[in-house]
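HUMAN: I'm a chemist; might I ask for a sequence paired with its structure tokens?

ASSISTANT:
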Amino acid sequence: MAEAYPWQAALWQQLASRKQHAHAYLLHGPAGIGKRALAERLRALLLCHAPVALAACGQCKGCHLLAAGTHPDDFVLEPEEVDKAIRVDQVRELVSFVVQTAQLGGRKVVLLEPVEAMNLNAANALLKSLEEPSGDTVLLLVSHQPSRLLPTVKSRCVQQACPLPSAGESLLWLRSALADVEDAQVQDLLQLAGGSPLEAVRLHGQGVLAQRALVVDGVKKLIKQQIGVSQLAESWNAVPLILLFDWFCDWAQLMLRYQMTRDETGLGLADMHKVVQYLAEKTTQNKVLALQDWLLAQRQKVLGKANLNRVLLLEALLVQWASLPGPG
């Protein structure tokens, strides 16, 4: 059964106690706050034959079939490969599922995540099912980036923003989820995850703190001219490109903020305080703005899965970074 997160308690109470359910919900919010788990709990409740205290009973035929992954009235639609698009043929399968009669005599439930993975044709194919769902069908759409969705898709759903946990709630939950990790590291993980506790757990699993230490060490050596651009780019082979661009975008933004405010409390994670402050003082605002524009453009290409030459891209980044201190 999907985990119940404490920061979702009020929203769960509101959703689970509804006498009549909407035919389509759009559960949206940043990645890493538990939207999929919330959708899975709601799916289980909607397919349960004998709910107990606003939760699926776990004992009826519907619950057993769902747990086994063989419930005939359950349909999950997601990309066939991570980070790929949801294709129009997949949506057509969903449409034919929606028009069938429920085999167990209750509801049919569709769980679709992430909605923004649908291309235009796929999204258009879904519209009719959203507009006129057949029988007692509930569609649960999960989105991390609702701004990317067609207005016609959004307008046909009950839009439900999912709550972000407070920093205190996140830390409390993370200290339990990562009981073997030191408290200072837990706080760093949460900051690197942009405040999303589930993303912090995922980043920890991929060894993000060691990757961060490697990158920070390399940046410091580059500024002191203790390592060359090509050698440094090669040494970061195991670090995901998107992480590198996230961090460099963040550092450029922190430099700009410091140049405008001279506020030493707003320098981001402690591992780069001195570097950010030093570079902000040694370069011009125009150079940082130009670098930030370039970084954001390249980050979009990385997110769009463009066919990039990794080493050349990193070398271009590091050449610009190394040239920050100096005449503008």
About this structure: Residues 167-205 form one domain. The mean pLDDT is 93. Strands lie at 24-28, 74-77, 108-112, 137-143, 158-161.
